[in-house]
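Following up on my earlier message about flavin-adenine dinucleotide. Here are the inputs again, as you asked, copied directly from the submission form:
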Amino acid sequence: RFLPSSHTCQLILASLFAVCSSLAKDFSQMSAFGGAQLSCDVAIVGAGLSGLSAAQRLLQARPDLRVLVLEAAGDRVGGRTLTKPVRCADGESRGWCFGGSHMAKSHSRMLQLAKDFGLTVSEQPESAGKNILEIGDTIDRYEGETPNLGTLTLLDLDKGIKSLDKLSKTLMESRPSWTNLDGMTLSKKIEKETWRQATRQCLTAIAEPCFDGEPDRISCLQALRIANSAGGFLALLSDGSELRIEEGAQAVCTALAERIGSDRVLLSRELMQVSATEDEVLTPPLAVLSRIRFSPELPAPKRGLIEAAGSFAASPGWMTSAVTAVLTYPTAFWRSQGCSGDILSHLGSPVPGSAMPVAPIALAGEVTSPDGRQPALMVATGYTTEHSWPNAEARRADILSHLARFFPRPEVDGYVDYVEHDWGASPTGASPLPPGAAVGLCDSTGLLQPTGRLHFAGADFATEWIGTMEGAVQSARERPMRCCGGWRLDSEQYKIH
Ligand SMILES: Cc1cc2nc3c(=O)[nH]c(=O)nc-3n(C[C@H](O)[C@H](O)[C@H](O)COP(=O)(O)OP(=O)(O)OC[C@H]3O[C@@H](n4cnc5c(N)ncnc54)[C@H](O)[C@@H]3O)c2cc1C
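Thanks, got it. Here's what our run produced:
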């Protein structure tokens, strides 16, 4: 409820995930809590990784700036990073990540932040053994990286992956028709590049978690953008994500907020409206942006993109509707079954007695503590259903039944603790992009460009590692952002012009 109260409003930089901008006149806010007025030079909307690291950078460059970070959530900073306590076999509770957690060795900005705050980054203990791929009624247990799909399907898969890789790598330079690519779903593209049904199902199973959405609903261009930002589709598939922060990724946000100063990070402050008086125009990002009123209206391309993202926001995806659960166990029983704990499931048949049309788990993996002493699995539910469970108990029962399809029931049921987080219950505002919307993130009229003094940042607006924690930090710190007579953010530091 921040209503810029008068013509003194200079600018707001909002972004679902961060914002920056500047100038030293007052930006006045009228708080719903007693009408108190707050003034700042730069308002940053969202206390996730992106917003907090933007604030830190600004203050490093100009400690005298009056920077405020406004966060809608009432109880915490961190956004899509979330650490919760889970009880372990030794009776102690330890923090586990339920949102962003894994990093690749190339995620240098996140690794540097962890180092700056004295957090411990460790490698996921190697879990040898077979991986599980479930497609429909078929369950494949395979060693290494190549499922047992048969020679013809594997050749077809290889061809499909390579062609997506090539297209994604050259997306920005050779500029294939972005509009055509944005006019089709990723599934349509997969159909064009492959000829076997089994290949298409396998590629769909792989693509869902990579691109945060169902391939038959997301824009092919958006998927290619995401792959491009990671160095290509193959790089996205093969770049390990084997590192984790022992204290949990949310600890980076907590440390950033402490460094910035608690008086500068305001919780329970949801930006509802951005108004410009005189000559300034202000804005914020994607699905959440569609809930914010802009006065005057944003330019047409930005408005269109925001509306498209907003209308798609209820669509299934990692960040919108998945439930993540951590199960701690006395022993890593999956290993004694010769398995790594990695499960990828696409449209697995429903578990007996469930009201859900498909099996619940889309993805599972071992998240045993770095010292190897506290065995744990993380599971994430799929995107493939708009149905929901009647209650958390029914969901837990289905998840356990699904795991018991692969491992002995007594071991599966013998968990020490089961803790989950329903990302759909507290919407983050993140959204996969439907066909027709992503072109606005590629071209120069899109949201990557500031509007006046309003800048957009956040994981969705990264140019490297879109959709990840690394991307969230990169977008806030390194994309050049300019605003009339104000700030420029470049790869080194914020400079005043
Ligand atoms: C289940 C899950 C698993 C993931 N796994 C990984 C992983 O393993 N590795 C990885 O790198 N990434 C992963 N991610 C993605 C990663 O967590 C995010 O990309 C990153 O944390 C996003 O940071 P951000 O600052 O851009 O946005 P967010 O963290 O979403 O922060 C945005 C903030 O803005 C606030 N906000 C929104 N609207 C308003 C408003 N109107 N007014 C005020 N505040 C507002 C929100 O409450 C939120 O706190 C995962 C995400 C999820 C959900």
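One observation from looking it over: The chain has a mean pLDDT of 80. Hope that helps, and feel free to reply on this thread.
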